[in-house]
Amino acid sequence: MPRRGGPPEVNAGSMADIAFLLLIFFLVTTTIETDAGLDRMLPPMEPPEDNVVIKQKNIFTVNINKNGQLLVEEELLDLKNLRNAAMEFLDNGGDGTCNYCKGARDESSSDNPSKAIISLKNDRETKYSTYITVQNELVGAYNDLRNREAQRLFNRKFTEMEAEYLNPETPSSVREELKDKVKQIQDLFPQKLSEAQTSTN
């Protein structure tokens, strides 16, 4: 007796449903990694002031070459000494107008924390990790000085106050109280960290 028909047919009606369910499963369970960037708060847009003269002694220059070496104020410096060198510059108070500065009051260094600028420049081939480490040390110099003044004025670290102020879960009444204190400390040592154009050689 001859065989009737070909091979048995497979019912593919539910394949689309299965594929759709698998797609939803993978979309829900897959995690997407995100790269952490630099946390920087940009200053507000302000019109440039006319005839601004910045004295060279109020600029603290930090250059990083492609080998990761630091040239600070035209001299080689170890990374471990960078924070202290930056703090000495910021806290100098050379013109005598800073009554909270505890520096050497060297007339050849920065006049006042409000006039002090740190200029950071790196080579195009500088390692990213070195660049970030140097930035952290310079920001750390500002934070150490701000912590000192916050302890003196409010018996608290500035970094703790700032973190609590920026935390969205902090009650608005507490944030309002912290706002003036954080600004007061920031005004004592304003963070003027300038990143110069990257050099190509």
- Fraction in beta strands: 5-15%
Mean pLDDT: 84
As a percent range, the share of helical residues equals: 25-40%
Major sheet size, sense and barrel closure: 5 strands, mixed
If you compute it from the alpha carbons, what radius of gyration comes out, rounded to the nearest whole angstrom?
28 Å
- Overall 3D geometry? elongated
Provide the low-confidence segments as ranges: none
- Structural class given helices, strands, pairing? alpha/beta
Query: What's the number of extended β-strand segments?
Result: 5
CA distance, first residue to last residue: 89 Å
**SSE ordering:** HEEEHEHHHE
Number of continuous helical runs? 5
> Strand order of the main beta sheet, please?
3-2-1-4-5
Q: Could you provide a short overview of the structure?
A:
The chain has 201 residues and is α/β, with parallel strands linked by helices. The chain has helices spanning 15-29, 82-90, 128-154, 158-166, 172-188; strands at 59-64, 70-72, 75-77, 117-122, 193-195.
